[in-house]
Amino acid sequence: MLKVFNSNETSGVKWIWIAVLTFVLDQASKLWVVGAFELYERVAITPFFNLTYVRNYGAAFSFLSDAGGWQRWFFTVIAFAVSVMLLYWLRKNDAEQRAQNIGFSLILGGALGNVIDRLYHGFVVDFLDVYVGNFHWPAFNIADSAICVGAVLLVWDAISQSRKSKAQAKAE
């Protein structure tokens, strides 16, 4: 197997399994939704959460969803570029940089999950519908959730690293 996926890896690539797991869970859930639901079908799970099959032709929160089709390729190229960049950073990181590597891996798995949808369907399959009263957040999927959690981990890691650096500087 390629050296980049060596399980004895001391770089952040050691955490690539999180990206793979995220990708598999995302694609399996979307396959289930497309097979089990009609478009716009809604199943209430709790008083604030539904499963609802919708198609997102844009990006986050349906940004540019009605742009005429070019956005499919634009977002696909961006996702591939971000994925290559994340793989590079994972390779350069030390395996012990847990929060950062997990964040990169979650974003990588989510980006690839959504790009496969764009390439295969021409849209992203969304189905998680959270709401309060009549206000519904835009529907999302496991890939979107992984990207958000990954981004939060990266911000949290950056803040905690900054605090550590300031504390060390004060101690000196």
Set out the fold topology.
Layout: H1 16-36, E1 42-46, E2 49-56, H2 70-92, H3 98-120, E3 124-132, E4 135-136, H4 142-171
Antiparallel strand pairs: 1-2, 2-3, 3-4
Helix pairs in contact: 1-3, 2-3, 3-4
Q: Would you summarize the structure shown here?
A:
With 172 residues, the protein is α+β, with helices and mostly antiparallel strands. It is 56% helix and 14% strand. The protein has a 4-stranded antiparallel beta sheet.
Written overview of the protein:
The protein is an alpha+beta fold and 172 residues long. It is 56% helix and 14% strand. The chain is built from 4 helices and 4 strands; from the N terminus they run H-E-E-H-H-E-E-H. Strands 1-2-3-4 form a 4-stranded antiparallel sheet. Strand 3 and strand 4 form a beta hairpin. Helix 1 runs parallel beside helix 3, helix 2 packs antiparallel against helix 3 and helix 3 runs antiparallel to helix 4. The N and C termini lie far apart (46 Å). The mean pLDDT is 87.
For the sheet with most strands, the description reads: 4 strands, antiparallel
Categorize the overall geometry.
globular
Structural class: alpha+beta
Number of helices: 4
User: If you average the pLDDT, what whole number results?
Assistant: 87
Output the helix-strand order: HEEHHEEH
- The proportion of strand residues reads 5-15%
Low-confidence stretches: none
- Read across the widest sheet, the strand sequence of neighbours is 1-2-3-4
**Strand count:** 4
Feature tags:
172 residues; alpha+beta; 4 helices; globular
